[in-house]
Amino acid sequence: MQLPLGSNAVTIRASAAADLTTITAIYGDAVIHGTASFELEPPNLDEMIARYRKLTAEGYPYLVAEIQGQVVGYAYASAYRTRPAYRATVEDSVYVREDCQGRGIGHVLLERLVAACLARGYRQMIAVIGDSANRASVRVHERLGFHHVGTLSAVGWKHGRWLDTVLMQRALGDGATSNL
User: Fold this and answer.
1) Half-sphere exposure (CA, 13 Å, Cβ side) for 106?
2) CA 5 to chain centre
3) Parallel, antiparallel, or unpaired for β 62-67 and 89-96?
4) Where on the phi/psi map is residue 160: left (φ > 0), alpha (ψ -120 to 50), or beta?
5) pLDDT bucket at 177, cuts 50 / 70 / 90
6) Which residue, of 1, 56, 75, 160, is most buried by count of CB atoms within 10 Å of its CB?
7) Angle between helices 105-119 and 135-143 (to 10 degrees)
8) What is the DSSP letter of 85?
9) Is residue 4's pLDDT more than 50?
């Protein structure tokens, strides 16, 4: 992990509605150029605001990374599944601006997201990583204690090719060792 130093230090904080224009741009670039998301068209700002409001109203953590006051990445947790039996399990999402990738920002965002989910009492975190070739995301998750639980082969078609989905999991707190 390689974090920026000095005046380029990364600050992680709770997101705010004012961050959503930049978050929308970061995600839009990931949708258009990347394989982490299986969306084919970037959602517009109104849709991203609606998603943000839903997640934060439900109490899920939604964080941003800043360098010199500019948002360069974001991470949030959401319900892994909506059925009540899954209520203690969350799914993570982490996106970093393309020109800031490889500097440890995703690692710090995910580390803080895990801590925020622990503080809220969640017991399991799932990573659904688009594209098995996304080694950077797999490595970040491995470094933070996630283990590989499966690969769904060729489940998405994007950029003219079939893509896998890698599933990783990490226990939070007591995990499965005690009752809710």
Assistant:
1) 21
2) 23
3) unpaired
4) left
5) confident
6) 75
7) 50
8) G
9) no
d(CA 16, CA 62): 9
Tokens of 140: 């970040």
Helix (H) or strand (E) holding 28: helix 20-33
The secondary structure of residue 84, as a DSSP letter, is G
Tokens found for residue 100: 């800031």
Residue type, 125: M
For the purposes of burial, counting CB atoms within 10 Å of the CB of 102, is it exposed (0-12), middle (13-18) or buried (19 or more)? exposed
Distance separating alpha carbons of residues 173 and 177, to the nearest angstrom: 9
Do residues 84 and 100 touch, judged by C-beta distance below 8 A? no
For residue 146, the Cα-to-chain-centroid distance in whole angstroms is: 13
Q: Going by C-beta distance under 8 Å and a sequence separation of 6 or more, which residues neighbour residue 14?
A: 61, 62, 63, 64
Residue given tokens 């978050």 in the structure block: 23
Which residue, among 58, 166, 76, has the nearest Cα to 112 in the 3D structure? 76
Tokens of 1: 């992990």
Structure-block tokens of residue 72: 């360069």
State pLDDT tens for residues 60-72. Answer: 999 999 999 999 9
pLDDT of residue 7: 54
Residues in the chain: 180
